[in-house]
From TrEMBL, chains A, B:
Gene3D superfamilies: Amidase signature (AS) domain (3.90.1300.10)
Pfam families: Amidase
Gene Ontology MF terms: amidase activity
EC number, UniProt record: 3.5.1.4
Family in the record: Belongs to the amidase family.
UniProt xrefs under PROSITE patterns: AMIDASES
Active site: residue positions: K135 (charge relay system), S210 (charge relay system), S234 (acyl-ester intermediate)
Keywords for this protein: Hydrolase
Stated name of the protein: amidase
Domain Amidase: start-end pairs: 79-540
Catalytic class of the enzyme: hydrolase
Catalytic activity: a monocarboxylic acid amide + H2O = a monocarboxylate + NH4(+)
Amino acid sequence: MSALQIHADDPRDPIQEARRRRDISLAVEPPLPDLPKDLPLNVTSLPRGILTARECEITEKTPEGLVELLANGHFSAVEVIEAFLRRAALAQRLVNCVTELLPQAALKRAKWLDNYYKEHGRTIGPLHGLPISVKEHISLKGWEVNFSFVARIGTIVDTDGLALKAMCDAGAIPFARTTQPQTLMHLETSSTIYGVTTNPYNTMLTPGGSSGGESALIALRGSPLGFGSDTGGSIRVPAGHTGIYGLKPTSTRLSHLGLTGIAGGREQIPSVIGPMSTSIGGLEMLMKTVINSKMWEVDPSLPPIEWRDGVDWLLRGSAGSRKLKVGIMWDDGLVTPHPPVRRAMRETVEKLRKDPDIEIVDWAEFSMKDAYEIWSTLIFADNGEVMLNLLDDGKEELRPLTEWIFKHNPHKAKRSLQEVWDWTAKRDEFRGKFAHAWHKTGAVDSHPIDVLLTPLYIGPPAKLDESKYWNYSLLFNLLDYPGVSFPVTTVDPTLDPIDVDFLHKGDIDLETHKLYKPDWYKDAPISLQLVARRFEDEKVSNDFHISPI
Amino acid sequence: MSALQIHADDPRDPIQEARRRRDISLAVEPPLPDLPKDLPLNVTSLPRGILTARECEITEKTPEGLVELLANGHFSAVEVIEAFLRRAALAQRLVNCVTELLPQAALKRAKWLDNYYKEHGRTIGPLHGLPISVKEHISLKGWEVNFSFVARIGTIVDTDGLALKAMCDAGAIPFARTTQPQTLMHLETSSTIYGVTTNPYNTMLTPGGSSGGESALIALRGSPLGFGSDTGGSIRVPAGHTGIYGLKPTSTRLSHLGLTGIAGGREQIPSVIGPMSTSIGGLEMLMKTVINSKMWEVDPSLPPIEWRDGVDWLLRGSAGSRKLKVGIMWDDGLVTPHPPVRRAMRETVEKLRKDPDIEIVDWAEFSMKDAYEIWSTLIFADNGEVMLNLLDDGKEELRPLTEWIFKHNPHKAKRSLQEVWDWTAKRDEFRGKFAHAWHKTGAVDSHPIDVLLTPLYIGPPAKLDESKYWNYSLLFNLLDYPGVSFPVTTVDPTLDPIDVDFLHKGDIDLETHKLYKPDWYKDAPISLQLVARRFEDEKVSNDFHISPI
């Protein structure tokens, strides 16, 4: 890919400089051994052959397990951070997911925490010593934030993201910064500066995007928990493509204060930050820690809603006790998911039906055809100029998906203010209709559905440059509903053959259908999405999660 | 004023038709006697000389008192609604505050409620039989909504405002619709269709606006409780100018679903609906009823925050008990309030200082100079075209304040989308700085201020066409903080002489200073404003209200 190398021969080239900084930060002692020449497509088992048993023991714990073992002194903060620095450095060699590691700062903090623990006999907070990774664009005071734009290399920020700071105040240690795609508007991860990030389960495939550095790193257990961001699926899709968990929260649950923006003042489709983790408990850990720091006292955009982990939504044990009501959206009526996704839906619903405490309701017909148009019109209302100008400033070639979504997108145009007001009103009308349909799933003596189960993405993780159908994830950005992605199965060519009797519903449906070739996707993770109404983030990341079934 | 009469000679004139409908709706039996020829400037005591003692007894109750007496059968719903219909018809003759009454619909509903009460021995809900008034633009299904635009006369709406419907579901009866100014963007109330609404305490003065029909009607006890709306002060200023109570809630506490808009999709400065009443208890009654109907289940723009009337914000009686901390914003640093407003501030603060459970903190210097520019730029970002075109369609002359704010406003301009995004980012920066300043009033071992006491308006209710300085009220629209206006005193020329040593801070300060002439404003109500942080509406309309002191 020439776009990734255009500056390669210039010694003062900012791209080479950024990569050099990354490479220096990756040095570990003792050095990692050379990797075998012919790596398998699935690299997830390689770390176990390279790292020590103790390092694997540490890095394969869930975040909940880690904080417990740090709190009772079983692990020290220093040995935990050292193990993750080594595993992250290895993950970088395997799937190219890191923009830099932060060994000095992280080790210094870990030492301080260990001393505090020794001196006071207790932890500094509930996340004492927990390593966390952070998508590159989420601000860390004193560090460069380039958003993967060549033109922004060297831009140092002077604030910490407030949400990230709340995690640090509770004892967490940021130690790794991760890759994101050009413009952050792809469901895959490749950029001029850092190249292509690949999927640990099959390096011919994408780990998703735009938080694909996080997903690849966490899937390889190079980090237990991290921050991604999501405007159209960018947390959920990469989490889903790599078999980990990801939550896109309701937009005003986590503060964006302290983040550097490149699109300030655009509030029509909210971009959100949120957790990605090896466990669903990790999602809740981040949400609870950040929300209960009461950020609404300094960020007036947030409503004062604490994390409600004590609420018994089903009134269990009381006279009003009821079943968990799960709506099923089999597809969006426009583009049929690939066979393994349909199997994942069927198998999950079959399991749910066997639970006597769960009631299943098919989601009624609802026209989703406007969703992409409204979302896309509002997102690209400046005709993509801010992003395209930044690319031009950096003399970057457009990646194929940048070309596709910024140039060939039928809904991108330079809009007038009045047009954006009109489309915002259409957005509100769409939101109102969807909320009405949700509410209608209940009746006088029955509760509306608690959660909605949907496909997350049209198929398995795609090959590079092929992730073009966003509707299943962006629908919930348009609605601003919280959604979790959770792993269900992997592609099995025997169980998931091509649908030979496929009847397409339109051109995009046919084009998407043709992308599926079972053998290409063997072992690729297949995940689904669980959604709740606005502000009911707790329902999908705690009480009601159905992933362990 | 010729603008109010341009169509007077045309029998098919829509204005005459609208007034005819209004006048027919005002007929009461037995008819009201003719009014004396020379009415005093202060007409507030006239109803007692015209209505029966029983009618006065009913109409002079607070909303809390009324629902209690309706619930225990002391009053019937029919006699209550009949008394208010008579008093509202009288108020219309005195101050021209009504666009129409709804005698048939209201009486029919009252009879139904009385029958229900007889049959079941209980009320239908907590507001059983309570009459409520509604600013004209707030939708009532099947009725015309013209927003005071001639061009919209005859426009029938097909939905009820959801918040209004929640009140009706609890037993309230809408019976009166009230006047609003041309474009709804004045702090006074005059329109081509309905003419000028005047202040019951001094009919040479304005009752404020844009909810001036509500304020004048409620001040005359022609309604106990009503819905106004507020984008820059339109609930609080008219409530303040007429000695009643008004609350501008946080923007997403009450639903706007079902309302007809003329500016759909504009979300940069939220317009809100809210309660106006003869008592502060009335404000809480409306808020609690509407919010606890759980509108967030059908309106996804609302966070699920119930009305918190049981919260003991001060932790009274516990070890953590603390004082109520009240910040004092003496002025905005730009334009000095008139002498009676300054006296109201001084007297209120003196009383507060005597309360051992209250701690007073002066609000630190904070630059307010950007507030009007940001608010105004965002509000008039279409150069006022939507409004001005509607006026043109109706062949309306511009009222002087329309001319002033739409034509001579230095911040109105036709903005590009990018400009509005930039100004939205400036709005967020302003909000962030203000929240930080509020937070800073606390320290490690002390709580930030609970509420902020401020002037509400620069002076007493103005003469027509003179209400031009909005900063004290619009500041809290820009911030989206809840604010209550509450009566403190009345103008006393002896206590409130012209400030002869006045040193002005600039042209607007000097111009505003010159407007004050004590004798003109004798007996005019002076009110102040109590503000809380976003979503803490309960703090200013319940627990912490300081008006009764």
